[in-house]
Every structure is written in C-alpha cells, then in structure tokens.
Amino acid sequence: MTDVNRNDVKEYICVTCGKVYSKLDGNFPASQSELYAGFNYHLPTCKKCLDKLYEQYCIKLGNEDEAIRRICMKYDIYWDQSLANASRKITKNRSRIHTYISRANLLQYKNKTYDTTINDEQSNTIDSYSDLQNAKENGNEDISERTVKKWGLGYSAVEYQMLNDHYKMLKEEINPDDPIQDAYIKDACEQHILKYRYRDTDIDKYDKVSKLYQATLASANLKPKDNTKELISNNPDECWGNFEKIIETMSPADYFKDKKIFDDYDHMDEYYKRFIERPTDNLRNGTNVMDDEFSIKVNNDDE
Prior knowledge:
The chain has helices at 47-61, 64-75, 81-86, 96-104, 114-123, 129-137, 145-151, 157-171, 179-198, 203-219, 227-231, 242-250, 268-285, and strands at 3-6, 9-13, 20-21, 125-126, 155-156. With 303 residues, it is mostly helical. α1 packs across α2 (64-75) and α9 packs antiparallel against α10 (203-219).
C-alpha cells in the first residue's frame, strides 16, 4: 500500500523508487482511473520516475508520441492523438508527459481512461474533420476529405474503403450518366456498411437491412448474377450444346476422370450421324449414301 498513515500523518510512497512524500498533489500525477481510487485518484508513480520512464520509452521506441501512448497504456490514461499534438506546444523546461497527463484530466475528458481509447479505436469512426486529421496523422492517409464529403461523417477508415470499393463495383453495371441510378447505388453502399456492422451483433437488423439492400438494387435495375443459369437451361430449345458447355466449364472433357458420367445414354451421337451428318454429306457431295438400318444392300453374286 502506498498510502501510509502514521499518527494521522499520511505518507505517500512511490511504488517505483520507494521515496516517501508527505502529499500527493505536486508529487503524483492525477488519474481518472478507478484502479487508483484508493490512492485518491493519483498515479502510484511519482513525477520524477514518470519523467525517467518517458525518456526510456522515447529511446526504446524512437518516437515521443509512442512513448506517451505506452505510458497511457501502462497507467490506464486516456490516449488521444490531438492531446499528444497539443502537448508538443510547451517550453523546453516543461515535461511533455506531465503536460499530456494534465490535459487528459481536463473537464472535457472526464471519466476517460485507456479503456475509452480502446473503445474509440474499435469503432474508430470519423465524426468530425478534426477526427479526419487525427486519422491521417495515425497512418490512415488514404482517407481523403473528398471521400468524407461524398459519404458524410460517421464511418471508420475501413468502412470508407468498403464504400468506395462497393460503389466502384456497382457503378460498372449501370449507365454512368443516370443520376437516379447513381443515387440508388449510394444508398445500396450505405446499406452494405450497415450489414457489415450488424452481421455479428443483431441478426434481425441484419436481415432487415439485407432485404432493403436487395430492394435498392432492384430499384437501380441491378440484380445479382446467377452463374448456374448460364450453364444450365430449363428450356429444351436451349439444351443443344449445353452438355458440352457444362463439361468444358467444369473440367476439360478429355481429362475428366469418370468418363461414364458422360456416356451417350440417349445415343445422340448415333442420331447426329444418321439424320444430320449423312444427309448433309449427300447434299454437299451429290452422293446417295443410304441409312444402314433402312437400306437394302444388293449382293451382285446373287443376281
């Protein structure tokens, strides 16, 4: 326990260096984490030790912002890139880590801890243009202001990429000069993101959005392609040639292992030779070859 009471005189011990202090304020940074409620909402490491830890992380990680973030993670302090940026604007004699922590304890960040950072980064939605700037500073440079203006605020970096990719895919299927279809496609893209959000959390909402998505596609005269219909037709007039098409699509016929699957049980080959190939050859060559089954062969020896 770092809070020692001796004859009503409290002493506060730094858990890092062991030094005893007579008061918290001025010696131990304030905290909003419930982890330190018993230490009157102050970090258990004194300011001097925290400065040393910050310098060690700067050397180890090679980046001041990363050093601050690592300390935030270790001590359950709210991390935010805009706060880190603001903490740079200090005089040389002031500690950057203490400047950051003091600003993280301002009223607008009340009750925010590193758990808040985790939640923010999991949703990671861009709700303002300052969020957009922070996202770019954190490595999401592919998100442009034009993209945010096109789709509006409230999406994460991943979702903005999904919107653009889905829009590009659907746009290839319509008349590029039709503004009505374009509006439907944008609606469908937004519904596509809602499906993505609900798929693991709310199956009922996912089903409703899926139906809405299909209806929107229909309104835009877009329908999912059914590749099986291209291979197999229920119309007898379209069956000729589909047999070979199926074989060659699934696997080259010459290399298909079980050739019995494609045996000519209906004797189509025989039919073709007798009633198509033979008459065609007669017509083309001026011959008079008769069908073997129905012709009478004359044996000259018997005449």
